[in-house]
Design goal:
- It is a single chain.
- By secondary structure, the protein is α+β, with helices and mostly antiparallel strands.
- It has a seven-stranded mixed β-barrel with strand order 1-2-10-13-12-11-9. A two-stranded antiparallel ribbon has the order 3-4. The protein has a two-stranded antiparallel sheet with strand order 5-6.
Amino acid sequence: MHTVWKGAISFGLVHVPVKMFSATEDKDISMRMIHKECNTPLNFVRKCQHCEREVEWGEIAKGYEYEPGSFVLFEKDELERLTGEVTKEIKILDFVNLSDIDPVYFQKTYYLAPNETGAGAYNLLLEAMRQSGKIGIAKVSIRSKSSLAAIRIIDRCIAMETIFYPDEIRPVAQVPNLPESVTVNEKELTMAKMLIEQLSTAFEPEKYKDDYRAAVLEAIEQKISGRQVSIAPEPNKSNVIDLMAALQASLEAVTPVATAPSSEPAAEAKPEKKTAKGKGKKAKEPALS
């Protein structure tokens, strides 16, 4: 794994030197922009519209447009000083319950490993958090961006989840067309709850696959080998408009089918009679009625 950040976790006066690694990887299939006429990849040029020439990285600063056409400029080191990047610190402010944080706040997960000299403090924090059942809420700056973060335990590793600040979460009230009050049909509600129960299972992430990525990779292989790209036909969609009918059909689709009874039910076998002569021998099978 590639180290993306080095620093320390601090809680109280305790410092835990750590290295940070990305816990996830982007599996999206990367494609470049190609000029169809000559099959050449296109380059994106940093061109100044005023000077009409390409601009080198050393000539570029970041600017904030406070009114149309007017900017205040910042150099990279200015922004780093403002964000506290030089401190290289994950400062835990509070310890809370994980269940108190709505998933809408979570952004990206990182693994934190102990630095060469920080194994003792790392193990102490890991075990203390594990036994307390708490997670830490911290502040951290990564790549000139300040973030809130949740510090928690995953297996034998301290992990950090960057999370949004509250003012970055859009209020639900801004969502259009939400119902003023929720009213439902009781029969439909009962069936919907039955359907949820039938579809409920333990979370097994390994059973979920990226079908789109698999289809794109297959199409790439077909094009490389000169074959025509074959696309599976879309499954027939049932045009069920009635909600009750849709619920009933869904329940029937997920409910295990019982074994159909035969037209002539089998007669139950009568219990075997024990006789003095039949001791130790199998009794004769009684005739079926």
